[in-house]
Specification:
The structure holds two protein chains of two kinds. By secondary structure, chain A is α+β, with helices and mostly antiparallel strands. The radius of gyration of chain A is 24 Å and the shape is elongated. In chain A, a hairpin with a 5-residue loop joins strand 5 and strand 6. Chain A starts with a helix and ends with a strand. Chain B is an all-alpha fold. Classes of the chains: A alpha+beta, B mainly alpha. The interface between A and B is large, with 74 and 77 residues.
Chain lengths: ~170, ~475
Amino acid sequence: MQTSVLLISLLLMALVAAAFGFVVVRSGPREDDYSAVTSGGYLIRRWWFLFLCAAGVLVTAWSLIPFPLQAGLVGAPRAIDVEGRQWSWDISSRTAQVGESVLFRVTSADVNHGFALYGPDDQILAQTQAMPGYVNELDVTFEQPGRYRVLCLEYCGLAHHAMMAEITVTEGP
Amino acid sequence: MATQQTEYATPETERTPVVKLYLAIGLVVFAGLMLVGVLMRAAQGASLIGFGPDLFYQLMTLHGAGMVGTAGLAALAVNWYFLSRYVRLNQRVFLATLILSLLAVAMIVGSILIGKFAAGWTFLYPLPAQSLGQWSTGAALFFVGGLLVLGVAFLLVYLDMGLAIVRRYGNIARALGLPMLFGREPLDPAHPPTVVASAMVLIVNVAGIAAGAVVLVMTMLHLVYPALAPDALLMKNLIYFFGHVFINATIYSGVIAVYEILPVYARRPWGVSRPFLAAWLAVTLMVLAVYPHHLLMDFALPAWMAVMGQILSYTSGIPVLVVTAFTGLMLIYRSGIRWDAASSLLVLGLFGWAVGIVPAVIDGMIHVNLVMHNTQWVPGHFHFYLLLGLLPMVLGFASYLCSNGEQGRTGRLGVSVYAVGGILLSLSFLVSGALSVPRRFAVHEEAWQWLGDVGALSGGLVLIGTLMIALPILMRLPRAQLAGT
C-alpha cells in the first residue's frame, strides 16, 4: 500500500509542478491586456474547482465506506491486551497463527506511546495510539507467517527508539 | 482613498526599524536551526557523525520549538510590515513582542541545553512530567513557561493589530470582507488582501494561542502538583488544536508577502473578489476545525471527529489550489515578470505551499494514516509547506525589502541551490515514510540509514543556499532603505 501511496503522491505533485513550470516558462513576453488572461483563467478555475469538489466527494465516499476504524468487524477475534510503558511493551500473547484475526486492546501505563505493527517485510501493517486512561481497539488479521515487530511511533523519551517487541506468526496446525 | 489610507497608515519612519530587527534575528536563527536539522539527519544516517540519543532528542526539541517559534515571528514581521501600510500600528508594542519573545527563547533554549529538556516541541502531556531522570521538573517548567511567554508576546501584538483594524474598518468581520461577500456592501476591489489575511490570522491565532495557554498552564500545574492529572486525551486535543492553528497562521501570514510584492513584479493587481473573500472565510473556519486529522489514530475519539478531520483536511487545500496558487499563476502568466532572487523565492514559496498539500491530504485519509502516521511522511509534508513554502516567502520578503530583489548571480544561484536542496530533503522524508521509517527516532536501523545521509546532504544544500541569500541581506540590513510596495 505504501508504495502505491508514494507513487500517487509523486504523480499528483508532479502535476502541480508541471503547472508551475508551464506558467514560469510562459511568463513572457508581456500581455498588457490582463483581462484577456483572466477571462480564460477564470473559466479554467471554475472547472478546476468543480473537478476538485467532485474528486473530493468520490474519494471521500470510496475511502470512508465502510468506516475503516470500526474494530470488531471480524467475528469473535482473539483479544490480545497490550500495555505500553517507558520503554517496553507488555503483550498478553506474542504468538498467532496465519489467517487468525486478533483484536489488540492497547493502552499505556504512563505517557503516550504509538503501537505500530510491522510485518515480516518491515512495513507498517496497522497502528493505534497507546493512551494513558484509554483503551484503543485494533483489528489485525495475520496473512503471512514470520516475525512481526511492534515499534513505538509516539515519541516517549530517551529510549523511545528502542521500545520494541516481537510477535511470531506460524502456519496453522 | 489615498488620503484616507495615509491618515490611517503607520508613519513611514516607524514601519521599518523593528522589522529589520525581526528579520536579522530570524535569518540568523533559521540558519542555526537548519544546521541542527542537518546534524539530526546525519546522526540518523550514522555514516557522517554520531551522538547519543539524549543529545539527539534535545536537538529535536530545539529544532522543533525553534523553527515553529522563529517561523511565527518572521511571518509576524511580514504581516506587521504590510498591515502597517493600511492601519496605524504601534511599533513599541511590536518591539515589546520581540523582547518578550527573546526572553521566551532564553527560557526554552536554557531548559533544553542546560536542563536537558527533551519532550519534543509538542510537549505531549504527560511526558514533560515523566522523563525517568532525563530532565528535571524545573527544566520542564522553564520550557513550558517559555512557550507561555511566547504566546503572551503574540497576543500582545495581536491586540494592537486588532485594535488598529477595528479603528479603521469598524470590526474584524468587515476587515475579513464578510459584508462584501454576503452582498451587504458593494465589492471594493481596493480592499487590501493583506487586511483580509490579517483578520483571518487574528481570529484563528488568538483562539489557538488561548487554547495553548490553557494546556500550558494545566501542564505547569501538573508539574508542580502531580496529583492534579488532567485527562490525557483532552490535553492532546488542546495541544494539537494549538499547534495546528499556530503553524497554519504562520503560513497565512507569510503569504501576505506574495500578495503585496508579486503584483509589483508582475505589474498587475491582486485585488479582492468574492471567490477570494469566500476562500478566506472558508480557511478561517477550516483551520479552526481540521485539527482532528492529527488524532486519527486515537480511536477513543468519536468517529465523527475522524471523518471531519479527513474531509476538512481535503477541503482545506481547495482555497489554496483554486484561489491563491491559481491567482498567483495567472498574475505571472505572460506578465514579463523580472526574475530575480525575490520574485523567484516568492513563486517558490507559492509552489512549496501548493505541492505540499498533496502529501498532507493523502496522509489525512484514515486508510493511509493507519500506515503513515508518525512515520517520516509527516515531516516530509510539513517541510514542503514550511521549508519550501513559508521560508522562501520570508526570504523573498527580506530580499525585496533590503535590495529590491537584486542580489545578482549569487542570489539567483542561492535560490536554485536552496530549491534543489529543499525538494530533495522533503522527498527523502516522503520516501522514508513510504518505507515505514518512524519519525523522531534517534537511532535508525541499517536499512534506513542511507536516507538519513541523503537528508543530511540535501539539508546541507539548503543551508548553503540560505547563507548565499541571507548573508548579503544581513550585511546590507543595518543601512538598508527598505523598498516600498
